[in-house]
Amino acid sequence: MQRLSPALLQDNVPFDLIALIKTILAATKEISFRVSQAHLGDLMGSTLDENIQGEVQKKLDVVANELFKDILLESGFVKAISSEEEDTSVAGDKNGKYIVSFDPLDGSSNIDINSLIGTIFSIHKAPENMAADDPDMFKQAGNHQVCAGYVLYGPSTMLVMTTGSGTHFYVLDRTHGGYLLVERNIQIPADTQEFAVNMSNQRFWQPEMQSYINDLLLGDTGPRDKNFNMRWIAAMVGDVHRVLCRGGIFTYPSDSRNPEKPYKLRLMYEANPMAFLIEQAGGLCVTSKERIMDIEPTSIHQRVEVILGSKNEVEKCLSYYK
Ligand code: F6P
Ligand code: MN
């Protein structure tokens, strides 16, 4: 099995970007270890704080964020970082060529039940004419990402990453301490009979999404004429990983529970990196109105509606909005 650097060189990834990716992965190896020891190291449960988005922070959220932040800011490779757990972007080295956005631990509600969680990251080039402490550097559409990926802290620690030459799977090999390439060029089947959505919110969705999901539930007695299975891991990393492995449609649709906050998932830390990975694997990632990676961000903590997965199924879902 190929090691990480030769695999990236094969995709013509520049040396400085490889060095940054390796820095990110060094942090994930430590997070992976801390996650596995959480109960033993008194890292279960919540802190007494909330993040900028009003969500209670888990102890492991904070540990993972600090690890990621410190290692990136000390590396000299990044001009700034932006994290789901930080109020605003944090300046790094003024000569850093890249900026990194990350969700240090996605699926926080799974932390206390020893279930699937992961780290999501997205890398853009740093604009040369902007100051390192200017958060507007991060207002770049997903189309401009040079790398995106996630690390799943599951039964094996797995890296899923793209630099624009396909989406590849790697596994952390603890015998030598590095990630090994296990599958190149993942392809998501265009058709599927599996969907992922938090059904408890159904009554708050827009009518179009309600009627699309209703038709899936009707199975072979309804217009789709086939039965669908449902899965919900409650960690986007886990649900997207299943879609990459065997197809499916995943959505966190807009809803009317809180008119101030119609969307749950974050554009920079969740939707954009997943969109890059999904599209590189032949799938689609959209809102009910547009392609996710075309969105011009207006703020770094912006949230967005997400519909992603098998191409034909996502198109079917969108047809309900026409
Ligand atoms: O980060 C937000 C998130 O935890 C996602 O990882 C996940 O898909 C979703 O929220 C779970 O939402 P819910 O709490 O509605 O199941
Ligand atoms: Mn998250």
Question: Any descriptors?
Answer:
322 residues; alpha+beta; Fructose-1,6-Bisphosphatase, Chain A, domain 1; D-Maltodextrin-Binding Protein, domain 2; 2 domains; 5-stranded mixed beta sheet; 7 helices; 17 strands; binds 6-O-phosphono-beta-D-fructofuranose; binds manganese (II) ion
At the fourth level of CATH, the homologous superfamily of the largest domain is Fructose-1,6-Bisphosphatase, subunit A, domain 1
Structural class: alpha+beta
The CA-CA distance between the termini, in Å, is: 47 Å
CATH class term of the largest domain: Alpha Beta
Number of strands: 17
Number of helices, counting only DSSP H or I runs of 4 residues or more: 7
Tell me about this structure:
The strands form four sheets. The chain has an eight-stranded mixed sheet with strand order 4-3-5-6-7-8-9-10, with helices on both faces. A five-stranded mixed sheet has the order 12-11-13-17-15, sandwiched between helices. The mean pLDDT is 96. The protein has 322 residues and is of the alpha+beta class. The protein has two domains: 180 residues, Fructose-1,6-Bisphosphatase, Chain A, domain 1, CATH 3.30.540; 126 residues, D-Maltodextrin-Binding Protein, domain 2 (3-Layer(aba) Sandwich), CATH 3.40.190.80. The site of manganese (II) ion has 4 residues, from strand 5.
Could you outline the blueprint of secondary structure elements for this entry?
Elements: H1 4-10, H2 15-36, E1 46-50, E2 56-58, H3 59-75, E3 78-83, E4 90-91, E5 98-106, E6 118-125, E7 147-153, E8 157-162, E9 167-173, E10 178-183, E11 194-196, H4 207-218, E12 229-230, H5 236-246, E13 249-252, E14 265-266, H6 267-280, E15 284-286, E16 303-304, E17 306-309, H7 311-319
Parallel strand pairs: 3-5, 11-12, 11-13
Antiparallel strand pairs: 1-2, 3-4, 5-6, 6-7, 7-8, 8-9, 9-10, 13-17, 14-16, 15-17
Bound molecules: 6-O-phosphono-beta-D-fructofuranose and manganese (II) ion.
